[in-house]
């Protein structure tokens, strides 16, 4: 029979019931606890790894945000500082720190979940806040200094302008300038060296402004003040020399200006005087060219003579002419024209007013008074003096017409082969001149006057001369007929240029 080993329970061998099973269970428990501990430890390490990863990401993002915010805040502040009046920069800095910088910095800490990122934000935000405060404070102080200097310059300019207008306030302005500089120095805005420099600039600027103001007001007195040395302690020798030179120039300029003003005044006075003379003559000359003296005209002529722009000789000549015309009216005498006077005045009427030979109103008055001009010829020459100076085109046309007349003159005033002067020819030339001028004036109005001066033209005015030339064909009189009335006078026959051959119509 086989030898079978008998099973023995080790627990029973030890002598305690279930002792072996308990041991096994204890051993199994130790194994399971170790596994649990190891699992917990692994989970913990995993969580730590996740947190570390999140923390690195937050710190990295926070670093970038800090840099961006710092750059943005710096740029915003620089723009504010550059656009703000230095006098308002302190308030602008406080508003920027409170309303812009602090909210932007605080926003960086929002939604941070890791302690490392939070710690970093706490330290970095404090540093960034301190940096912004330091920068804005430094810029504020700098700009306030600039503002103080700018204000000081403004004060210098304003006080200098005041001195320029009123040089008598020189001492007062100097004291005000010193007060401004003292205040800047005591407040710490300007160091001693800068304050001293600004004070010297004030003194120099104010002295120059006062001197310039005096020069413009009275350069002669200003030269005396500068020469007395009253500005020497404020101005350099070079500045003093320049001011004296400027005073010399102003003296000359004021002298020229005074002469110009005097000339302008005289011109205006003469213009007014001429207007009054024209008014008198306009009332004296009738539509048909005759002259008529009204009762109030002598008084108007006397008043005209008293005007500051009236030349004494011209006024006297006008008064004499009015008296002569008045006597002729009473006596019924008709004035006639001297041919030589007519020819002379026709030429001189075309000369420029600057030419001393130019025909003047005084000469016209005198010629009429002396019986050398008829009423109509006086009116004609007066109109020429008044209008031709303003109408260069007509003046040039008249010059060509006069040249034509002069080309015809020898045929009237000389006779025979030896060219003996014919006194009667001057009278006939005068008659021809008047007849030719009448046709010329009509043609000028229609614009067809040049052809009349052309010998090849059928309407050549020279053809009109033949009837007037002595000893060359029949005489054709263009004078008045016996009994003809002209300007209130009736022709009685004979020489129409003899005033005794005219009688006033009753």
Question: Could you characterize what this model shows?
Answer:
The protein is mostly helical. Helices cover 69% and strands 2% of the residues. It contains 15 helices and five strands. The strands form two sheets. The protein has a three-stranded antiparallel sheet with strand order 3-4-5, with no helix packed on it. It has a two-stranded antiparallel ribbon with strand order 1-2. Helix 2 runs parallel beside helix 4 (115-165), helix 7 (219-227) packs antiparallel against helix 8 and helix 9 runs antiparallel to helix 10. The longest helix has 65 residues, at 19-83.
Short overview:
The protein is built from 15 helices and five strands. With 506 residues, it is mainly alpha-helical.
Order of helices and strands: HHHHHHHHHHHHHHEEHEEE
Quick check: average pLDDT?
81
Query: Count of DSSP E strands?
Result: 5
Report Rg.
59 Å
**What best-fitting shape do the alpha-carbon axes yield?**
elongated
| Amount of beta strand | under 5%
Helix content: 55-70%
Largest sheet: 3 strands, antiparallel
Oligomer: single chain
- Tell me the structural class: mainly alpha
How far do the termini sit from each other? 210 Å
Unreliable stretches: 10-15, 471-478
Count of DSSP helices?
Answer: 15
Q: Which sequence of strands runs across the widest sheet?
A: 3-4-5
């Amino acid at each position: 029979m086989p030898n079978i080993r008998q099973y023995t329970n080790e627990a029973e061998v030890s002598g305690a019931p279930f002792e072996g099973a308990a041991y096994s269970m204890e051993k199994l428990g130790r194994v399971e606890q170790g596994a649990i501990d190891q699992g917990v430890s692994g989970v913990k390490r995993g969580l730590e790894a996740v947190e570390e990863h999140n923390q690195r990401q937050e710190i990295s993002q926070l670093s970038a945000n800090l840099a961006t915010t710092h750059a943005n805040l710096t740029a915003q502040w620089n723009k504010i500082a550059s656009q703000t009046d230095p006098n308002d920069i302190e308030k602008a800095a406080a508003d920027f720190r409170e309303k812009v910088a602090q909210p932007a910095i605080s926003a960086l800490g929002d939604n941070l979940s890791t302690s490392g990122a939070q710690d970093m934000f706490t330290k970095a935000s404090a540093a960034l806040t301190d940096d912004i405060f330091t920068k804005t404070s430094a810029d504020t102080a700098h700009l306030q200094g600039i503002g103080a200097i700018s204000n000081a310059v403004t004060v210098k300019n304003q006080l200098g302008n005041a001195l320029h207008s009123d040089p008598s306030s020189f001492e007062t302005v100097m004291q005000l300038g010193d007060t401004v500089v003292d205040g800047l120095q005591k407040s710490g805005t300007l160091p001693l060296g800068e304050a001293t420099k600004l004070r010297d600039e004030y003194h120099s600027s104010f002295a120059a402004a006062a001197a310039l103001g005096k020069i413009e007001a009275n350069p002669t007195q200003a030269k005396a003040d500068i020469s007395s040395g009253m500005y020497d302690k404020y101005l350099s020798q070079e500045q003093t020399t320049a001011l004296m030179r400027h005073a010399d120039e102003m003296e000359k300029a004021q002298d020229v200006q005074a002469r110009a003003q005097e000339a302008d005044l005289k011109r205006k006075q003469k213009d007014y005087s001429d207007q009054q003379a024209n008014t008198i003559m306009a009332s004296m000359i009738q539509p048909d060219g005759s002259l008529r003296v009204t009762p109030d005209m002598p008084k108007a002529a006397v008043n005209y003579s008293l005007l500051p722009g009236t030349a004494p000789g011209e006024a006297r000549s006008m008064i004499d002419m009015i008296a002569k015309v008045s006597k002729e009216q009473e006596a019924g005498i008709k004035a006639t024209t001297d041919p030589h006077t007519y020819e002379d005045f026709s030429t001189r009427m075309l000369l420029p007013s600057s030419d001393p030979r130019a025909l003047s109103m005084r000469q016209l008055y005198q010629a009429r008074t002396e019986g050398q001009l008829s009423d109509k010829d006086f009116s004609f020459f007066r109109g020429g003096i008044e209008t031709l100076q303003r109408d260069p085109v007509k003046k040039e046309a008249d010059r060509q017409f006069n040249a034509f007349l002069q080309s015809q003159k020898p045929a009237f005033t000389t006779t025979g082969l030896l060219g003996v002067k014919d006194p009667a020819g001057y009278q006939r030339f005068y008659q021809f001149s008047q007849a030719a001028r009448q046709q010329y004036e009509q043609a000028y109005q229609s614009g067809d006057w040049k052809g009349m001066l052309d010998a090849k033209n059928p309407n050549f005015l020279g053809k009109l001369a033949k009837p007037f030339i002595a000893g060359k064909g029949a005489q054709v009189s263009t004078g008045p007929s016996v009994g003809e009335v002209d300007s209130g006078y009736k022709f009685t026959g004979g020489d129409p240029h003899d005033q005794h051959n005219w009688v006033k119509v009753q």
